[in-house]
Amino acid sequence: AANKLTPSSQPFVGATSEVIRTISGIEHRRLGNSNIAVSAVGLGTQRWGSTDFNAPDVDECHAMLDYATEHGVNLVDTAEQYPIPSADRGVQSEGYTEKIIGQWIKADPARREKLVIATKVTGSSNINAKNIVKDVEGSLKRLETDYIDVYLAHWPARYTPQSNWGQSLAYNVDAEAAPWYRNAMPFEEFAEAMSKLIDQGKIRGYGECNSNAYGLGALAGAARCAGVPPPIAFQGDFSILNRRSEENGLAEACSPVNENCGFMAYNVLAGGMLTGKYRTTPAAYDLYLEGSEGAAGKLFRTPRGRMDTTGWGPTLYRYR
Questions:
Q1: Which one from 82, 96, 288, 319 is the annotated catalytic residue?
Q2: Nearest residue to 34 via CA among 204, 169, 170
Q3: Would you call 171 a catalytic residue per the annotation?
Q4: Residue 79 and residue 159: Cα distance in Å, rounded?
Q5: Which of 45, 157, 229, 318 could pair covalently with 184 via S-S, beta carbons 3.0-4.6 A apart?
């Protein structure tokens, strides 16, 4: 049975992950204790319009939106900070990915009802009541919509080892003193700020990305104490190669018998490793470390994917 110990102002709606309907073979599941039903498969948009060597352009992104919505997919995951990597200025600067999605919606406003849009406010010291209001307005404008379905902190205001793409389970006490974590927005204030946006009709629900079980438990508890809606979604790096969202307790905390919160996975192909394209020949960076500089250089010049680039290759080491 799902946990029904919610404040009287927050009635139990249903169990997260409950299948609400199936469209074109794709299950649409309840997200947290809400009426939002998201497709089990979603569109990740981090690289849409980016400066990456093989990033999809506007037409390709719009074609993906067309195909997805025609085949049962409604979830689109984006962020105000996308694309990554982005340009310092100009068209491909931060916010461009939301604009690409907004252009697709503006061309036919009826398309908006086909999507569940999850976007993110930049984390760390950017998280405060003033910036949450300012940033959500920016996202609404770029997305050409008057509401966002799920609004997430891209990473928490506080320090957590999961904030860097969930790369570590080890807690570094010294990191708490970093200037960008000082005076971090308290859980209660974050929940209340999100509740105001819900009351204003600007978002339907909220949560955190790159967090952990402590973050969910503390945020949900703070929301209950304040009598405001609890988070409906947490998001984390998760694949058959990366199980840290289970290992850090988040999967347990999200369960309907506990906090009844939805979980959204990203990087489910582990940076491309699970496509199989690196099975025969290792990633360029690994070849370089092995001393095969010639083979590595060739792949660096004509990469198969992010694992063969000088920037992403070392960053995504944890999948190899």
A1: 82
A2: 204
A3: no
A4: 20
A5: 157
